[in-house]
Design a protein that fits this description.
Elements (H helix, E strand, L loop, with lengths): L1 E7 L5 H9 L7 E8 L3 E2 L2 E10 L3 H16 L2 E9 L1 E3 L4 E9 L2 H17 L3 E7 L2 E5 L3 H8 L5 H7 L1
Length: about 160
């Protein structure tokens, strides 16, 4: 499976990334893309900017580990994960996830699995700037619930053995 993982400060071009991953192939039946954007508000306050920090090396390795987990769960033909870091302003792209598979269900599930991980458990730290000052943001309870649904259940673990 073709996999690309990049952490970068620069903007990305989603259409170009899809073309890089899927261009010229005829074995693909589904391409699912997700682009996360910096919103204009946080906790009801106008957002000036957000700053994303990460631990270089560790963040890429952790994302790669989850891409491998997605490949084991679904028959994927390719994955791209691009996550930006640094200071971002409202409207800017933060993250791009592309999942390519023969069937749409696999591509959708893998993209959602990867985004749930990136949103809650990837080694990124988010600080927001509002008129009230700056603050660090923790994962939201609803996001954690979404991510927890992918954890192996005891019945699935027993069946796998």
């Amino acid at each position: 499976m073709a996999a690309t993982i990049r952490l970068q400060q620069e903007r990305f071009d989603g259409a170009l990334e899809v073309a890089r991953l899927a261009g010229g192939r005829n074995d693909i039946g589904a391409i699912v893309t997700f682009t996360g954007l910096c919103r204009r508000e946080e906790a009801g306050l106008p957002l000036v900017a957000m700053t994303l920090e990460h631990y270089p090396g560790m963040a890429e390795a952790e994302i790669a580990r989850h891409v491998e987990a997605a490949e084991k769960r679904w028959p994927l033909l390719g994955v791209t994960v691009i996550h930006r870091f640094g200071r971002l302003t409202p409207g800017e792209e933060i993250v791009l996830v592309i999942a390519v598979a023969r069937h749409r269900q696999d591509a959708f599930a893998a993209a959602e699995f990867l985004m749930d991980y990136l949103k809650t458990r990837a080694p990124f730290w988010k600080r927001v700037e509002t008129a009230a000052g700056t603050s660090w943001v923790e994962a939201k309870h609803a996001d954690n619930i979404s991510a927890d649904r992918w954890a192996p259940s005891p019945s699935r673990q027993a069946a796998a053995q």
